[in-house]
Specification:
Blueprint lengths: L12 E5 L14 H19 L2 H6 L2 E12 L9 E10 L3 E10 L2 E14 L5 E2 L3 H14 L3
Antiparallel strand pairs: 1-3, 2-5, 3-4, 4-5, 5-6
GO molecular function: fatty acyl-CoA hydrolase activity
Protein name: Thioesterase superfamily protein
Organism: Nostoc commune NIES-4072
Length: 147
């Protein structure tokens, strides 16, 4: 999995992530499943900052996750300082893709890509990407590609 190594990270959010005792597996490192929870925490922070979930629900739609791909680079232990970063890497008409990285003591510990869509709460069918999110994303794109 290749990660977008340049600094162009539309709508990036950053989250300090505490490692809890219950995150540790029998090997003394963070369990694989915990990374999935951390990605959920990052997506929730993204929604808080860019497209509030409670407003989506009031308007009759919500995001759904269609897939997760994660690559583990190094183990994380309970004493490590962990930072998560998540940003939009692609925003189509109906589908979105976010990329994330988990850093442990400022070293890359995992990279992930998640894909999803927004769906109607009435019929569970995909809807176009919310206008507010499209606008923020494309404004960010314009700002970063000015001549």
């Amino acid at each position: 999995m290749l990660l977008n190594n340049n600094l162009h990270r539309p709508l990036e959010v950053v989250l300090e992530i505490p490692v809890k005792t219950y995150d540790i597996d029998f090997m003394g490192i963070v369990s694989n499943i915990v990374y999935i929870r951390w990605l959920e925490d990052l997506r929730l922070k993204f929604l808080d900052e860019h497209c509030q979930l409670n407003q989506q629900i009031e308007q009759g739609y919500a995001p759904v996750l269609a897939g997760t791909e994660i690559e583990y680079k190094r183990p994380i232990k309970i004493i490590d300082q962990v930072i998560g970063r998540l940003w939009v890497s692609n925003l189509g008409r109906l589908k979105w893709t976010v990329q994330a990285e988990i850093l442990s003591n400022n070293k890359l510990a995992a990279v992930a890509t998640q894909k999803g869509a927004f769906v109607s709460l009435q019929n569970s069918r995909p809807i176009p990407i919310p206008e507010e999110l499209q606008k923020k994303y494309f404004e960010h794109q314009k700002e970063n590609f000015k001549d």
